[in-house]
Specification:
Blueprint lengths: L4 E2 L11 E3 L8 E5 L6 H8 L1 H8 L2 E5 L2 E2 L3 E2 L10 H4 L4 H13 L7 E6 L1 H12 L6 E5 L13 E7 L7 H14 L8 E5 L2 E6 L8 E6 L14 H12 L1
Parallel strand pairs: 3-4, 3-7, 7-8, 8-9, 9-12
Antiparallel strand pairs: 1-2, 2-4, 5-6, 10-11, 11-12
């Protein structure tokens, strides 16, 4: 039966932190970051990740930005309010939350940071800055706030062509940089078009990592869940592929 555990994270009690542990404690762990002014509840509703992750045997660790009073993540001082102006350092919280998850029984062989918008930028920053902890990053309608080089971090980046904030062009640039500078992919990528989704995958990368770019025609700044492309299913498949 699927259950959730509210974790007590020392020094960060004002940030709700929830662990959904798969039946196998060694299952891949997806660490999820909400968007600007968002919450765990909001991203759960938009993504349906709890049910999908349980079905696919992936554990989830849900994190919360600092309440100021609204919640956001400070991605290297470049975004987003109110955490940016307050100069919040989110990294100690992320480390403490991971420690609390392990104390609660999680034993993942693979850990992937994932988020949407401001949370997408935070997922990339965390994976790059804590590459000893993370194996991959998922950015949904997000961006790359750091100069990520080395570390062999796999990437799934998703952008919509009608996203006026952070769209497909930003996602394309990010994937290109990743292929060159982070995982040193070689060879010609595979490109598949299915409905609204153009998916480009580089699989011959360092340490068996992969980079996947998803460009969604006609899609705005949303968590994409459509008949011919579902970001929730894709990120779970991505996490399992790294395990």
């Amino acid at each position: 039966m699927r259950t959730e555990t509210t974790l007590q994270v020392p020094v960060h009690g004002e940030r709700p932190t929830i662990l959904q542990l798969a039946t196998n404690p060694a299952a891949p762990l997806l660490v999820v970051f909400h968007g600007q002014n968002g919450s765990i509840e909001n991203i759960k509703e938009r993504s349906d990740l709890p049910a999908a992750a349980w079905r696919d045997g992936v554990s989830l660790l849900w994190l919360s930005g600092k309440p100021l009073p609204k919640r956001s993540w400070n991605t290297r001082g470049s975004c987003c309010e109110p955490a940016q102006s307050a100069g919040v350092d989110d990294m100690p919280y992320v480390r403490a939350a991971l420690a609390a998850a392990r104390a609660a029984g999680a034993r993942p062989g693979t850990v992937v940071a994932a988020g949407v918008s401001n949370g997408g930028g935070m997922a990339v920053e965390v994976a790059c800055s804590m590459n000893e902890e993370f194996d991959g990053a998922v950015s949904v309608a997000g961006w790359n706030p750091v100069g990520c080089t080395g570390g062999d971090i796999a990437l799934l980046v998703i952008g919509g062509t009608e996203d006026a904030k952070l769209g497909a062009a930003r996602a394309r640039s990010m994937a290109s940089s990743w292929v060159r500078n982070v995982v040193s992919c070689t060879g010609t990528p595979e490109r598949i078009v299915e409905g609204i989704a153009t998916v480009t995958s580089w699989t011959t990368c360092a340490r068996g990592r992969l980079v996947r770019l998803v460009e969604l025609a006609g899609v705005g700044h949303v968590w994409p869940r459509f008949d011919d492309y579902d970001a929730t299913d894709d990120m779970l498949a991505f996490a399992r592929a790294l395990d």
